[in-house]
Design goal:
The protein is α+β, with helices and mostly antiparallel strands. Helices cover 52% and strands 9% of the residues. It has nine helices and four strands, in the order E-H-E-H-E-E-H-H-H-H-H-H-H. The protein has a four-stranded mixed sheet with strand order 2-1-3-4, with helices on one face. A hairpin with a 2-residue loop joins strand 3 and strand 4. Helix 1 packs across helix 9 and helix 5 packs across helix 6. The chain is globular. This is Glutathione S-transferase family protein. InterPro entries: Glutathione-S-Trfase_C-like (IPR010987), Glutathione-S-Trfase_C_sf (IPR036282), Glutathione_S-Trfase (IPR040079), Glutathione_S-Trfase_N (IPR004045), Thioredoxin-like_sf (IPR036249). Pfam families: GST_C_2, GST_N.
């Protein structure tokens, strides 16, 4: 049985949405970060960083939302959440799958802290560049790979949901609004949002 370790109102939303989209049977294991449950020795064996989300699947255990998305998409191809390794779209899928933790999240931190980092030094370039590039990619739509929804949309959609819709840290743009509306219309997104609210 797949077990998803999660906590309400946290980054667990990405993986809740993933699991709801997957259609796979899974058990949600509440890991209440307000009580420090994520620092318990048994939990640290699953995710040494002491963060949520984390996932176990038999003997497999991992943390990091994008990694969990990659794992589920590859381990369970019947979910159709990831292009096959032999599919040419796989390259772009991987790029966008990791764009949220690699670019969106650092850009949000840069905006929040107002830290000036030379674009030649920052792995994400600049916050402006991140959101300009994402806007251009999303204008083509309806999903990041075109017609087919994938786990990359879950990481991108979650990142934008957090940055634009929930915390308004990033100014909205028409392409972001339209994309978020499509994400929010998905029944799995709606179920995950209810679960994540606690």
């Amino acid at each position: 049985m797949i077990k998803l370790y999660w906590s309400p109102r946290s980054r667990s939303f990405t993986t809740l949405w993933l699991m709801e989209e997957s259609g796979l049977a899974y058990e949600r294991v509440l890991t209440d970060i307000s009580t420090g449950a994520q620092k318990a020795p048994d939990y640290l064996k699953i995710n040494p960083m002491g963060k949520v989300p984390a996932l176990t699947d038999g003997d497999a255990a991992l943390g990091e939302a994008a990694a969990i998305c990659a794992y589920i998409g590859d381990r369970y191809p019947e979910t159709k959440l990831a292009p096959a390794v032999t599919d040419p779209r796989r390259a772009r899928y991987l790029q966008w799958l990791f764009f949220s933790p690699g670019c969106i999240e650092p850009a949000i931190i840069q905006i929040y802290t107002k830290i000036e980092i030379p674009t030649s030094t920052a792995a994400w370039g600049s916050a402006t560049q991140v959101f300009d590039v994402l806007e251009a990619a999303l204008e083509k739509g309806p999903w990041i790979l075109g017609e087919e929804f994938s786990a990359a949309d879950i990481t991108i959609g979650s990142g934008l949901n957090f940055a634009v819709r929930l915390f308004k840290m990033v100014p909205s743009r028409p392409a972001f609004d339209a994309y978020l509306a499509r994400c929010m219309a998905r029944p799995a997104f709606q179920r995950a949002e209810k679960i994540a609210a606690g």
